[in-house]
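Hi team,

As requested, here is the filled-out complex form for the NAP run. I kept the field names the same as last time so the parser does not choke. Let me know if anything looks off before we queue the next batch.

— J.
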Amino acid sequence: MAEKKVIAVVGATGAQGGGLVRAILADPSGEFSARAITRDPSSEKAQELAALGAEVVAGDVDDEASLQRAFAGAHGAFCVTFFWAHFSPALEIEQAGKMARAAKAAGVAHVIWSTLEDTRNFIPLSDDRMPTLGEHYKVPHYDAKGEANHLFSDAGLPVTFLQTSFYWDNFIYFGMGPQRGEDGKLAITFPIADGRVAGIASEDIGACAYGIFKGGAAFIGKTVSIAGEHLTGAQMAAAFSRAIGEEVGFNAVTPEVYRSFGFPGADDLGNMFQFTTEFEEQYCGVRDIDAARALNPGLKSFDQWLSVNASRVPVP
Ligand SMILES: NC(=O)c1ccc[n+]([C@@H]2O[C@H](COP(=O)([O-])OP(=O)(O)OC[C@H]3O[C@@H](n4cnc5c(N)ncnc54)[C@H](OP(=O)(O)O)[C@@H]3O)[C@@H](O)[C@H]2O)c1
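And here is what came back:
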């Protein structure tokens, strides 16, 4: 049998990268093998991937030399940054540059950069419909990723830009699940009025990335934007009601109110939802569910995601 082509995966112990590693390993007759990059190969999560059949190597997106070693000899590299670990858009851009240079040095044949829109192309900094954050950004965790796109293309890399969507897993891990109001009723709260949010099971992002690596040349130089469904707040609440057997309402607040909630990143997310709502046609419009399903036939709907995960969503 021909030797497998290695896909080196940044963030392999996390959501997106983990989904990609598991998708590769779930297809043992496929042409690829998975190289999981982690800061700590001895960690439980890293060892779980090793037990599934991944090669586990050390690498840190702050350390370019470690990335060069981790990408060496690989056919493909999946590159992602971790905004919520540090809240610094400037650091994301720096880390993207390190990954791009390391991928170039390693001579990989295909890079996927997990990115999002630079919302300043839609809402310039001078537009005061939403506050400018950190002096240079409207939606820092979007803008920095979009701004970093050119680092991959300028390097002449064979790159696919993968525009991801809102993880439904945020209902589990990000405190976005239903809360009980003073009236005792459950509700989810978003500043989206009757707008739709492009959402996805985070595991499906990696599975779509696997489809992109399999598609190879057809995706090089392309932007691929994925979602599992485009749902209004009322539709997400109704799906929750069905899944947990108790009525969940949808509490629409304004972006101003959402920004004032005060949790870390509330201003960034308030701006993000204002962007996705005001530019729904462009934001949902490019996130093609059928194309995502073509890449990943197991792509879940929100109901399907809830059928597996609703019990993991903390409900007070
Ligand atoms: N939440 C959402 O709805 C959403 C939607 C779209 C895009 N995103 C974006 O997704 C990105 C995060 O991806 P994710 O959710 O897959 O991450 P994640 O699940 O938080 O994964 C984090 C993993 O990244 C690794 N990591 C952290 N810092 C690292 C470093 N310096 N060098 C190497 N590895 C490091 C850690 O692995 P080790 O500890 O093993 O090293 C960790 O397991 C963020 O930038 C976010 O903006 C999020």
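Two things worth flagging: The chain has a mean pLDDT of 97. Residues 126 and 170 are 31 Å apart (CA to CA).

Thanks,
J.
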